[in-house]
Amino acid sequence: MPEFPAIIESIPESMREMDFLDSSYFKEPGKSLPTPAQVRALSKDIHMNSQPQPITFEDSGVFVKFGRYVTIAEAQCLRMLKRTFGDEIPVPEIFGWRVDEENFVFLYMRLIRGQTLLDGWNELDSPAKSSICDQLCHMVNRLRRLEQDPSDQDYVFQYYPDAGPFPSVKDFHDWSSFLPLLRLPTLKNYNDPYRSLLPDSEDIKFTHADLHQGNIIISSDKPARILAIVDWAQAGWYPDYREYCKALYTSSYKDEWRRDWIDTFLSPRLQEFLVFAEYTMAMGAV
Q1: Whose CB has fewer CB within 10 Å in the chain, the N or C terminal residue?
Q2: Same-domain check for residues 45 and 119
Q3: What are the residue boundaries of the Aminoglycoside phosphotransferase domain, all occurrences included (predicted)?
């Protein structure tokens, strides 16, 4: 497996430690976040896994996502979403971050006490499933009202040369079309038959880009409600169809979730998904 690109080496010293003193965690005077050393001591897979399992501090209600490839950008995204939408789009409250001497980033956030939609889905009846998808629909529509210049890139690109932000949707599509050819250098003059199926006039929307059941936390009690949408590491500005493509991409084609429910909270974009699927398979990102 190729190495991930170095993504935090250029973080200035002033950005290597941050406490959001206006967050709920610091309402009590004298409180401090667990140190990176304390988090490392509790980790069972830090030396075996490039993406270690997060650590939970139950007593203080702190959840720590950490690793060499965790980014400060995710913390900044959570902060922006919380300040912009409040509880309308529920995300974990971010308390701060640390970057240690090995360039591991530690994101400290509020522990969400619930279960993933993936774990709880089969326990829900049809009206409860419909309610969850109605909630998702409202949240996605609110998220799409954000307006900003395009930036960031999708994790499908993480083993490939750096790119973006792109000046236009056309440039983004041209780059997407080009990426599979990096694995086939003999096809330099290959005329991509799928490129014309990608709409260059597409609107750019803020996108979670990993909206599957494992990243949706729901309540254990009834009626089931969404407590948080988590894991915003891949979030960014993408063509409008991208959320739908990624939702399908992260679910099995046999699943009820994909077959019956994704289309209820995201607008179907099957043509774009077929192109997306061709590109990702050609890149080996499956």
Answers
A1: N
A2: no
A3: 78-265
